Amino acid sequence: MSRVYLNGQFLPLAEACVPVLDRGFLFGDGVYEVIPAYGGHLFRLDAHLDRLGASLAAVRIGNPHDREGWKRVLQTLVDEAGPGDCSVYLQVTRGADVKRDHGFPPPEVRPTVFAMASPLHPPPRERLERGASARVMADIRWARCDIKAITLLPNVLLRQAALDAGDDEAILVRDGLALEGSASSLFIVADGILATPPKGPALLPGVTRDLVLELAQSHGRPWVERDIAEAELRCADEIWLTSSTREVTAVTRLDGVAVGDGRPGPVWRRMADWYRACKAALRSGEECP
Ligand code: PLP
């Protein structure tokens, strides 16, 4: 594996160590980002850094780097990862104090900053063509799901419950509304219109979600941000889940029942083409859309 970044240094993974009193380890007190890079170009980097800044501000951790500083660190990891596609994981915690105490540590405790690049294998074509299966589950997370916090125990349990049921992802429902997946944003197609829940504290503002809406807009495909009732989810013509690493995946079975005719739908097909073109443009250094 190429070198990782820890607190100002690039070093081999085996040498990257954090103290056991780090608040990320003790409390899950930190935030993170996952950013794909295609052909050496970080995808939607500014949007990811904007969201990182918002997450850090929301949990009152000072941003350890300015934008240029982040770009230098992340691009170094991407360059060292070699020619293939990769995804960069970065995490900032509130740092390591000398004792375990819920209250914030004194100001001299600096945040712990860790980042690494891993090979990214986009979903194979036949998997995309088959689509994914999802299970509806009660959202057991907290009231600030807009913060990309490393505290992911509910998401972990929900994803595992879906896997245990033989499905790929959990779609989370709160107060009768379908919100998002355990690690993905949610779209439906109903009456020919693409719909996704509006941003707010109940869900993560997905970077891929925004790109999908921009692609819909630029290709004249009608879309709307609105609440999606669980009942509507169950009779949608198409359901998609999106994320930086899973891209745009059609859900073809929901709770064991076929979505539409049980195959990825025609609107998904078009969006998948637009998304692929977007990645290709980025590889040749162009903007998209
Ligand atoms: N919603 C949740 C809960 C997530 O964890 C993720 C990604 O990890 C997403 C949505 C999708 O976000 P993005 O498109 O920025 O990867």
TrEMBL record:
| CDD domains in UniProt | D-AAT_like
Its cellular-component GO annotations read: cytosol
As its record notes, the protein acts as a catalyst of: 4-amino-4-deoxychorismate = 4-aminobenzoate + pyruvate + H(+)
Record's keyword annotation contains Disulfide bond: no
Task: Say if the entry is tagged with keyword Transferase.
Answer: yes
Return the EC number: 4.1.3.38
Among the record's GO biological process terms, what is one? Answer: amino acid biosynthetic process
UniProt enzyme class: lyase
Give the transmembrane region(s): none
Q: One Pfam annotation, family name?
A: Aminotran_4
As cofactor, the record names: pyridoxal 5'-phosphate
Which protein family is it in?
Belongs to the class-IV pyridoxal-phosphate-dependent aminotransferase family.
List the PANTHER family hit by this protein, alphabetically: AMINO-ACID AMINOTRANSFERASE, D-ALANINE AMINOTRANSFERASE
What is the name listed in the Swiss-Prot or TrEMBL entry for this protein? Aminodeoxychorismate lyase
Q: Which organism is it from?
A: Acidihalobacter aeolianus
